[in-house]
């Protein structure tokens, strides 16, 4: 049996960050990854000749972002694309009303003002909410007090539902009233024209990563831990588990002895959302050149409601839409062709025959993915942000967890995964790890390898 100072389970952003920092400090580290690639939920498809980010796509707010500092230090190109928090305005958008009719500037401005007014009231409603209240309860209270006419209320109600679906991958009635408390974007957002998975792959260079190694169990023994895989066992003094929350909830990973109660409670209380992407490429652009987002309101957008122009990545007219929450679960049972046809049909209801037949498409199914079992974490009714941090540990014997679900400040983001991997490494080492030094060491290794 091979033995290491630390075994890291999972080669996503949290896992490779933690392993790299430990290796740089002189510890012997191995990363065990069930997939045949590095990156986890940062998954980039390149077979078409350009990158398609099937998983994570954005840095959500670059101001005071440690992740943004790392990207800059590694000189990874980005492109500004700010649409965070499912915003109602702020960037060029084409709005369509409930009948599928384009809204003029006056109507769009009124719509934006309506949502912003109710959102301001919603802050107070959430602050006064009681334990057990859902985000649906809170939004309904704010809408009831708005004084708006029923049609305008219905459109905002639909907007709130879709906002929860896109931010959390969950139904609005399942989300705790405080489930979007951390949902703030500070500064511009960016996407990655070379593909987001460049980041974890470059961090992992030189780290001992064993792909296609499925971890089945983690056992505490007298002198540390044994991690059992389908390719044998590995021993370690410390173990850092970075698999997604959905895998932990599935019971696919057996712990002996059973997990400490703080960890078990957090795993049971937190939710794992489903958020799937549908990319459609077209022979020509039928939407405005400067448009960031196409959004259908009310009945017209009951199912497919928002499309994001990501044409700049490939140079081909491309729209990205999402199937999240209940819709995300439903589309996973449908063939790609059926999903794509339904999305195109929704666009034709807005633009008519100007919508050509899609020339290429990509459909994800993260809820059915064995190694993620969902897209990212959220707060169901009764959970709190403390549940995220309580899962991190450390626990007796040197067991720790990392990943977006363990970082309460900004869960469900790559930034959270990065921060949690950093925290786990510092916890094991017993001293701080300077992020600038971490980035500089990656660059130095790459330069040395290129000589």
Automatic annotation (TrEMBL):
Name of the protein in question: FAD-dependent oxidoreductase
Phylogenetic classification of the source organism: Bacteria, Bacillati, Actinomycetota, Actinomycetes, Micrococcales
Domain of life, per lineage: Bacteria
Family annotation (SUPFAM superfamilies): FAD-linked reductases, C-terminal domain (SSF54373), FAD/NAD(P)-binding domain (SSF51905)
Residue stretches making up the Amine oxidase domain: 13-429
Signal peptide interval: none
Xref: Pfam families: Amino_oxidase (PF01593)
Entries under PANTHER family matching the protein: FLAVIN MONOAMINE OXIDASE, LYSINE-SPECIFIC HISTONE DEMETHYLASE 2
Molecular functions per Gene Ontology: oxidoreductase activity
């Amino acid at each position: 049996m091979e033995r290491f100072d630390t075994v890291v389970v999972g080669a996503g952003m949290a896992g490779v960050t933690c392993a790299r920092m430990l290796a740089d400090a002189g510890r012997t580290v191995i990363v065990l990854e069930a997939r045949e690639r590095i990156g986890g939920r940062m998954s980039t498809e390149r077979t078409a000749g350009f990158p398609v980010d099937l998983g994570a796509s954005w840095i959500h707010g670059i101001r005071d972002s440690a992740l943004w500092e790392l990207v800059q230090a590694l000189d990874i190109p980005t492109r500004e694309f700010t649409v965070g928090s499912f915003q109602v305005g702020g960037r060029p958008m084409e709005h369509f009303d409930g009948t599928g009719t384009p809204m003029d500037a006056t109507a769009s401005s009124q719509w934006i003002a309506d949502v912003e007014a109710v959102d301001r009231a919603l802050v107070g409603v959430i602050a006064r909410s009681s334990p057990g209240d859902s985000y649906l309860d809170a939004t309904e209270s704010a809408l009831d007090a708005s004084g708006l006419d029923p049609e305008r209320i219905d459109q905002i109600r639909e907007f709130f539902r879709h906002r929860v679906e896109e931010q959390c991958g969950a139904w609005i009635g399942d989300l705790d009233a405080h489930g979007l408390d951390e949902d703030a974007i500070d500064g511009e957002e960016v996407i990655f024209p070379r593909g987001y998975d460049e980041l974890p792959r470059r961090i992992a260079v030189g780290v001992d990563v064993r792909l296609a190694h499925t971890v089945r169990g983690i056992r505490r023994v007298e002198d540390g831990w044994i991690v059992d895989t389908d390719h044998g066992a590995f021993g370690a003094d410390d173990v850092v588990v970075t698999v997604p929350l959905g895998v932990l909830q599935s019971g696919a990973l057996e712990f002996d002895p059973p997990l400490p109660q703080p960890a078990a409670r957090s795993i049971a209380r937190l939710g794992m959302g489903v958020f799937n992407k549908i990319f459609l490429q077209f022979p020509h652009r039928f939407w405005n050149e400067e448009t960031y987002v196409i959004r259908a309101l009310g009945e017209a957008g009951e199912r497919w409601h928002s499309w994001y122009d990501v044409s700049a990545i490939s140079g081909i007219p491309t729209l990205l839409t999402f199937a999240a929450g209940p819709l995300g679960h439903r589309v996973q049972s449908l063939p790609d062709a059926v999903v794509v046809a339904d999305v195109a049909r929704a666009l034709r209801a807005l633009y008519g025959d100007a919508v050509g037949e899609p020339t290429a498409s990509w459909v994800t199914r993260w809820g059915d993915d064995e190694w993620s079992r969902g897209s990212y974490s959220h707060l169901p009714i009764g959970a709190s942000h403390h549940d995220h941090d309580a899962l991190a540990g450390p626990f007796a014997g040197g067991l720790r967890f990392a990943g977006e679900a363990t970082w309460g400040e900004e869960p469900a983001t790559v930034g959270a995964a990065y921060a949690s991997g950093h925290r786990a490494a510092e916890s094991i080492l017993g001293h701080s790890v300077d992020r600038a030094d971490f980035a500089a060491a990656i660059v130095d290794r790459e330069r040395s390898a290129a000589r």
